[in-house]
């Protein structure tokens, strides 16, 4: 098996935002010999410091262990960082022949080892594992915690791996995730609509910093936010948001735009 240059596309198929870390396609301790399993880790990084403060350590290594230390990083927000396409030093010695460095993919999720897991991060963790299982033809049973395949490791802390694997299996079978459940019940919003969900669009745009003072100075912010009517001014703001997010600028709030507005 060569360098796994499809990993960024696999990550994007989760629907989570993805950053391709410069140089990832040729980063690795040689190519990845095979993919028979997936190993879930936590970084044991700092408690704060942003979305993925362990990036440099996972990419470059630490004293005594050269990077890359895993193929993927997973930020607290659910943002996925694609770090390496070749073999990574994330699990040795392994108690499973399917989960050693030469046979498995590693995911290092940001967590200091005790703090609670944000829902968005855990959801993205499940989706990333499911998409990797799909890509490499693996059952959910091949997704393991580091602590399950290495006798001296505690990570990832507090995640019930049987529940986690059941969620991965459901996702592989095509059931909807909780974020998709939220979005599927939301209507398409277009010019001329007048309903409560238009207020949600206004509130989200404002929360995202996408509403300039000029948009509401005539009526006042409160009345602007309370309006249930989708007027031309709102459609223009939606287009601006879509442009900034790299979504097709059609001015409709539908299945593409709702998830970005809600950050799910
Ligand atoms: Zn680990």
Explain how this protein is built:
Helices cover 36% and strands 11% of the residues. It contains eleven helices and eight strands. Strands 1-6-5-7-2-8 form a six-stranded mixed sheet. It has a two-stranded antiparallel ribbon with strand order 3-4. The protein is elongated. It starts with 6 loop residues before the first helix and ends with a helix. The mean pLDDT is 94. The site of zinc ion has 4 residues, from loops.
> Which small-molecule ligands are present, each listed once?
zinc ion
Largest sheet: 6 strands, mixed
**Class inferred from helices and paired strands:** alpha/beta
With strands numbered from the N-terminus, the spatial order across the biggest sheet is 1-6-5-7-2-8
Shape: elongated
Low-confidence stretches: none
Question: What is the average per-residue confidence, as pLDDT, rounded to a whole number?
Answer: 94
Short description:
It contains eleven helices and eight strands.
Keywords:
binds zinc ion; 6-stranded mixed sheet; two-stranded antiparallel sheet; single chain; 264 residues; 36% helix; 11 helices; elongated; alpha/beta
Could you give the topology of this structure?
Blueprint: H1 7-12, E1 18-20, E2 37-42, H2 55-60, E3 61-62, E4 65-66, E5 72-74, E6 80-82, E7 104-109, H3 119-136, E8 143-145, H4 146-149, H5 161-172, H6 178-184, H7 196-207, H8 213-216, H9 221-226, H10 232-245, H11 257-262
Parallel strand pairs: 1-6, 2-7, 2-8, 5-7
Antiparallel strand pairs: 3-4, 5-6
